[in-house]
Prior knowledge:
Structural class: mainly alpha
Strand content: under 5%
Order of helices and strands: HHHHHHH
Radius of gyration: 13 Å
Distance between the termini: 32 Å
Number of strands: 0
CATH class: Mainly Alpha
CATH superfamily: Ankyrin repeat-containing domain
Largest sheet: none
CATH topology: Serine Threonine Protein Phosphatase 5, Tetratricopeptide repeat
CATH architecture: Alpha Horseshoe
Number of helices: 7
Shape: globular
Amino acid sequence: LEAIINNHFEVARYLVQNGACVYHVDGYTGLHHAAKLGSLEIVSMLLETGQVDVNAQDSGGWTPIIWAAEHKHVDVIRALLNRGADINRKLRRGITNRMLRTERIICR
Length: 108
């Protein structure tokens, strides 16, 4: 995960292609990190491997698309949607991704 967190695409790709685990014990994945950072290149690479769940929830219930939306990474949002990201998925608090994003827009 360190290569992804530090946005080192070539290193991340090499490690993933050679079996590196992209999941952390708390549910946070390399896809969460890449979406949060806005790294479309790493997001695309991870999605192409099929090793990550586009709707994986971290310990707070956030999915990669929520992290991308929180940081306004439109290209990453599009890539996640094209791979089946669910904007209506319920978070652990019982609200949906769409509701959370709407709440953040209205409250700012």
